[in-house]
Amino acid sequence: MMDFITVRGAHREYQTASALRGVDLEIAGGVWCSIVGPSGSGKSTLLNLLGGLDSPTKGQVFIDGVDLRTLSENEMARFRREKIGFIFQQSYLIPYLSSLDNVMLSQYFHSMTDSSEAEEALKRVGLGHRLHHRPSELSGGEQQRVTVARALINSPKILLADEPTGNLDRENTKLIMELLKRLHEEERFTIVLVTHDPFVSKWAERIVTMEDGRIIKDEPLY
Amino acid sequence: MTNRQWFFHVLKNSAAQRKGRVFVASASVAIAAAVVTAAIGLSLGIRQKLGGELKAYGANAIASKAEGYMDESLLSALSGVKAIESYSGQLYQAAAAGGVDAELMGIDLKRASGWKIKGSLPGEGETLLGVDIQAALRTEEGGTVVLSVDGREVPVRVSGFIETGGAEDRAVVMSLYDAQGLTGLTGKLSAVLIRAASDSLDETVRKVSALMPGVTVKTLRQVAYAEESFLSKVELLMALVTLVVVVASGISVSSTMGATVLERIKEIGLMKAIGGTKKMIGRLYLMEAALIGLAGGAAGYALGFASAQAVSMGAFKSYIAMPFYLVFLSLGLGLLIAVLASGFPLGPALRQSPSAILRGE
Known about the structure:
The structure holds two protein chains of two kinds.
Chain A: E1 5-13, E2 18-27, E3 32-36, H1 43-50, E4 58-63, E5 66-67, H2 73-83, E6 84-87, H3 99-110, H4 115-124, H5 140-152, E7 158-162, H6 170-187, E8 190-195, H7 198-201, E9 206-211, E10 214-220
Parallel strand pairs in A: 3-8, 3-9, 6-7, 7-8
Antiparallel strand pairs in A: 1-2, 1-4, 4-5, 9-10
Helix pairs in contact in A: 3-4, 3-5, 4-5, 5-6
Chain B: H1 3-17, H2 19-55, E1 61-64, E2 70-71, E3 84-97, E4 100-107, E5 116-119, E6 126-130, H3 131-137, E7 144-149, E8 152-163, E9 171-175, H4 176-183, E10 188-189, E11 191-196, H5 201-211, E12 216-219, H6 221-263, H7 265-273, H8 278-316, H9 325-351, H10 354-359
Parallel strand pairs in B: 4-9, 6-8
Antiparallel strand pairs in B: 1-11, 1-12, 2-10, 3-4, 3-7, 3-11, 5-8, 6-9, 7-8
């Protein structure tokens, strides 16, 4: 029986380098797993495979029993919008849209926009007073909180975060991590979070260490 | 807010964010639409106007009998032929003016408006002298010349002189009525000059031949050919200029929209990452392009209409009638240019994987 996330023998080759060299990984549903390692170890590449943003050159990725290789482009898009929320190091907020509109963007692609639901999502991340502000009017920490709201608005089963606090100071990093911890406890979605920051990785329940495209250590924290 | 309302809300915000680019793209489309509107409007109008201008230079078909004269009553049959714009009967007879050989021409003087006349059109009992005859006789305007026709000699007053570069330069020209009276050929004609629409000339000649048995109807090939040839060349030139402008506009819009797509590539990557399909994302960008195209098309129509009328006023001292369908053509063209030109840079962007876009490849 497979775990919620199962990766079998995943390889990812590029023209000039091999980013993944045979990765096997299993993550149960509802677990918070950090993936750590030096720059170029393949952490983000692995995360992209889990999110269907990229596909392995060899090997398989199963999410909730679905082999991502079997999905067409449109099926993959549907899979992402229904099951996965993304947080990136850069917020990638649409600059000409307000916080509310940026959250509603996710709703638009998922099914239908609902401004009251989007407003509630922003209140949950402490931005009830910043609904109509554009990204340029928000601090870095506030922008990342908008991306958290955007990522979770459709109640995904997995949250994939790639260096979500990479551009933030310690204070904002702590705020974001506390927010994720609270939401994770409330909703028990699976989190896979890539980071090179030991402070961030310790918030997880399990740490997977990568080096040179391979997993070299995999240990629960408690 | 419904999905549709949110969609247009996003479009509005997006356009407001890039007012400069939107303006440049709309202006490019407007220029193309204006040129097309003006070119088609002028082309249709020129054909109409030039037809009128060239009319002054003579008919483009002639009906005559190989021998003898035609009855003037045959003219009534021509009024039922739709393509005939005008016609007039003429009478020719060999004559002499002051001892100089000349051709007596009796014409409908109302049709002589395009001739170069020094003096005035002849009234009853008056005549115009061709410039060659004037030179031979050295007659002054208002003077008298003795016409010899069929053995009879009749003095007539010279009202003026005519120069056409053709047979009229060696003719004595008077009203058809006076010529018929002078020659004793009342109710008779030597020929009927016909002015018909040049694009259906041959068919008109066939119809007239059928209506006038025993009469030969020919096109005045040179006039007909020159007119059609000239009009066709003008239209071809306009078509080429229009094509060049439309292509240039498409390139300009494509370049502007390409820069926009490049600027917004991360947005596309994000939208794909959060589950947008190519169709969903494409719709957002192409609708923006469509609105730019429609705005450009509308502005282009207004500009083209005004330009065509300005040119017509300058060339023909009158306005031209422009068909209403040009509004829809202009809007449609604007839409087509904007959407196609945007589609070119957008297509490859949509085909990239989200991870490649977000990695910055």
